[in-house]
From TrEMBL:
Coiled coil: none annotated. It comes from Shewanella surugensis. This is Sulfurtransferase TusA family protein. Residues 3-65 form the UPF0033 domain. It comes from the Bacteria.
Length: 70
């Protein structure tokens, strides 16, 4: 599984990095780690709008983990 750690980034940078990662061939699910409150809202909204399947895997210590399916 591919992992993209965006916990040190705030929106809109976290969203831009995710968009770039999703343009690459993944070959499987992508685990996205988020900590910024804006990113926690904007990233799921973007994924839903673009038709990506995702699930909230964990929300622990202020970090949200989303599993995104290509």
């Amino acid at each position: 599984m591919n992992i993209i750690d965006l916990t040190s980034d705030v929106c809109p940078l976290a969203l831009v990095k995710l968009k770039l990662a999703l343009k690459q061939p993944l070959g499987g699910p992508l685990l996205v780690l988020l900590s910024d409150p804006g990113s926690k809202q904007d990233v799921p909204s973007f994924l839903k709008k673009k038709g990506y399947r995702y699930e909230n895997v964990s929300h622990c210590a202020g970090i949200v983990q989303l599993k995104v399916y290509p």
